[in-house]
Write a structure and sequence with these properties.
Elements (H helix, E strand, L loop, with lengths): L19 E5 L2 E5 L5 E5 L4 E6 L27 E2 L27 E7 L11 E8 L5 H6 L4 E10 L2 E10 L5 E7 L1 E4 L6 E4 L5 E4 L5 E4 L4 E3 L4 E5 L12 E5 L2 E9 L3 E6 L1 H6 L13 E15 L4 E10 L2
Antiparallel strand pairs: 1-2, 2-3, 3-4, 5-10, 6-7, 7-8, 8-9, 9-21, 10-20, 11-20, 12-15, 12-17, 13-14, 13-16, 16-19, 17-18, 18-21, 19-20
Bound molecules: 6-O-phosphono-beta-D-glucopyranose.
The site of 6-O-phosphono-beta-D-glucopyranose has 8 residues, from β19.
Length: 319
């Protein structure tokens, strides 16, 4: 006989393997059941390694990078905030070091969220949150940039994908201006065979040619010398930011997407400049990296008291 109020059967779900997250000695590692992994140093909240499930390293990290907190980490994804490049002397950031203080500050780990808690059913992923606020800076830095701010940096590791999101909050009672950039050193097999698509018709400031502005003509930008350019690519219909495509030997290797980050710095120091960098090894390592740095750096973003801003980017590995 059919029961009138028969209880619904409890679905039996296969026990899902969970991401493994470990924090020891101020270094955080996360690994997905698929084998994708990421390593983040709390110093600078710098991602130093991102491997896809085939074990392939996707980021370049100098073998001579200082990993002891004595200077910014050379390679991976150093964070640039609140100023990109040498700070203009007449600006509120004028007393800060090149690229600001985010990359050489000690961040705190705020916690993880897994794909289940993020409501993603199809793809396994883990989101790692890191925080930095004005009270965590040493007194000298607080005096050099005396604003009450809070940053939450989220790194989300997915299958074949790494997302970086920055949340900036003005917790004080006066506005401040900032720039932010994800200084990503992508690992490439040979810079001579590497190209970037998606920059055609984009204006760019060329730091190698006296910071003059040019318009990109190449549909596929290749490299044959020192390159240090800040592109501001035109947006597509609906104001959407166009993805960039990195190719190696003609094959797609990375897709780079952006959210609220209008600029992209493209940097390779090439032979002589890299040779002169004490923390860059091996010396021919310039052949093995390309910095694609999504950011908002061609102008200042003004944040009113109590307001917040958010922007981010994602790197998808295609190889
Ligand atoms: C790039 C800049 O983003 O960073 C370059 O456009 C600079 O001009 C490079 O040389 C590396 O900077 P740093 O401070 O890490 O040596």
């Amino acid at each position: 006989m059919e029961r009138k109020h028969k209880p619904a059967s409890i679905p039996v779900s296969p026990s899902m393997a969970q991401p493994v997250v470990d924090l020891s000695d101020n270094v955080l590692t996360a690994r997905l059941p698929s084998g994708d992994s990421v390593t983040v140093y709390l110093y600078g909240a710098t991602v130093t390694s991102w491997k896809t499930s085939n074990g392939q390293e996707q980021l370049f990290l100098s073998k001579a990078a200082a990993l002891d907190g004595s200077k910014p980490i050379r390679g991976g994804i150093p964070l640039v905030f609140p100023v990109f490049g040498p700070p203009p002397k007449s600006h509120a950031t004028g007393q800060l070091p090149q690229h600001g203080f985010a990359r050489n500050s000690h961040w705190e780990f705020l916690g993880k969220s897994t794909s289940e808690s993020l409501g993603r059913k199809t793809d396994d992923s883990v989101k790692l949150d890191f925080g930095l606020s004005s009270s965590m800076l040493d007194e000298a830095l607080q005096n050099k940039w005396p604003y009450d701010f809070g940053l939450v940096y989220s790194v989300t590791l997915g299958r074949g994908k790494l997302e970086c999101q920055m949340h900036v909050q003005n917790k004080g009672d006066e506005p401040f201006e900032f720039q932010v950039l994800f200084h990503t050193y992508l690992a490439v097999k040979d810079i001579h065979k590497t190209a970037v698509k998606g920059l055609q018709s984009s204006p760019y400031v060329d730091k190698v040619r006296s910071a003059q502005t040019f318009t990109e003509e190449a549909s596929s930008l290749s490299f044959s010398g020192e390159t240090d350019r800040v592109y501001t690519p035109p947006t597509a219909e609906g104001n959407t930011l166009v993805p960039l495509l990195v190719t190696e030997d003609g094959a797609e290797s990375f897709v780079v997407t952006r959210d609220a980050l209008p600029d992209v710095t493209v940097w390779n120091g090439w032979e002589d400049k890299i040779k002169a960098m004490g923390d860059f090894e091996p010396k021919d390592g310039w052949k093995s990296y390309l910095c694609i740095e999504p950011g908002t750096v061609s102008s200042w973003t003004k944040l009113e008291a109590g307001d917040a801003w958010e922007g981010g980017c994602a790197f998808e590995s295609k190889l």
